[in-house]
């Protein structure tokens, strides 16, 4: 099994180009199932979750080709309607094919994604909302077996809780439903806006009518398009934190700074100097890092997907900090590993008290999920000596060329078998 070897402690200096967004690409790829015209997607990141989604689409009958201009996806009117456990189990976003399959073909059998390390992660909100569009479903042997005998029909749906995935599944499903759908209490993550832009460009008719409300007029036909997926804001945030924690100086390019202003403002408050330009920014880490209180929240709040990374930075603050994880019930698995490196983090339920002024010591470590893995790299970059990070397949799910990108800016990092 592959491992990462990291030698700290170097300041990171140079330029990092941010890749396309994994979390925007996944729902957009699922939404291509609605079409029977050629779609070219640009800027898809080269990460395992995208490979898994492409395999899932192929298993459903999509024809996929890689070309100079991007990934070309072609669907006919005849998809298969079965998404197997073997493909959905490793990637929760597999459930996003349920909406488009039901919308286009009136029936589907899709494996439940199951739990994962960061919590139980049910799909009840997706299923209840789909039933309001006329879907009948049952759960059988770990599969959702769903039918919409009369086809999907528009309705008014208020999500009981903000969910990124459920909002995406319903936007995609309602785009081809008969009549009009109004979704309220929607997630408004930039990746959802990207999905809506993609669908509208393809010929769908979706309008934001207020901050968390969307009106979708069902359409019957779509057209051939080419679409560039947005940048990965979590990857951008991770490298910003890498610069801050190593007291380095990084230029982060291929981004829209406005989209990550919560993260930029927080890092400024903690002491970094940030110079914002049109599609890039420069961050200079400060010797002194201030402490703070943070809670994770749906966008535009602080993202849960950066909670593990910011915790590493707060271990270096001048005083104690508090982090409250309000999205997932079990997202502190990185804490035990960080404490093995000398951190002093105490958790109580969804709260973590993070002691400041820590010098991380190198160690052999175990990655437990995607974002936890990267937080261990950040800590190892500041620890003087050799750290080894095991189980890095988690990392390969969502970070494109991470060792290459870090090596280019001065990190001593390599992959070993
Ligand atoms: C997406 C992101 C993930 C991010 C998360 C929150 C993708 C592929 N993944 O995950 O990286 O961490 O948003 O920003 O984009 N919930 C239910 N029932 C449901 C659905 C969700 O109880 O049917 C709960 C979840 O367990 C969680 C909360 O709602 O506690 C938010 O989850 P959700 O926004 O749906 O996250 P995902 O779409 O799975």
Describe this protein's structure.
With 417 residues, the protein is of the alpha/beta class. The protein has 2 domains: 3-19 and 231-416, Enolpyruvate transferase domain (UDP-n-acetylglucosamine1-carboxyvinyl-transferase, Chain, Alpha-beta prism), CATH 3.65.10; 22-228, UDP-n-acetylglucosamine1-carboxyvinyl-transferase, Chain (Alpha-beta prism), CATH 3.65.10. Helices cover 31% and strands 26% of the residues. The chain is built from 14 helices and 24 strands. The protein has helices at residues 22-31, 48-59, 85-88, 98-105, 124-131, 164-175, 190-202, 233-245, 261-269, 307-314, 333-340, 370-382, 393-396, 402-408, and strands at residues 3-8, 13-17, 39-42, 63-67, 70-74, 82-83, 107-111, 136-140, 143-147, 156-158, 180-184, 205-210, 213-217, 225-228, 249-253, 273-276, 280-284, 293-295, 321-324, 345-348, 351-354, 364-366, 385-390, 412-416. The strands form 6 sheets. The protein has a 4-stranded mixed β-sheet with strand order 22-23-1-24. A 4-stranded mixed β-sheet has the order 2-15-17-16. A 4-stranded mixed β-sheet has the order 4-5-3-14, with helices on one face. β16 and β17 form a beta hairpin. It is elongated, with a radius of gyration of 22 Å. The model has no long low-confidence stretch (mean pLDDT 95).
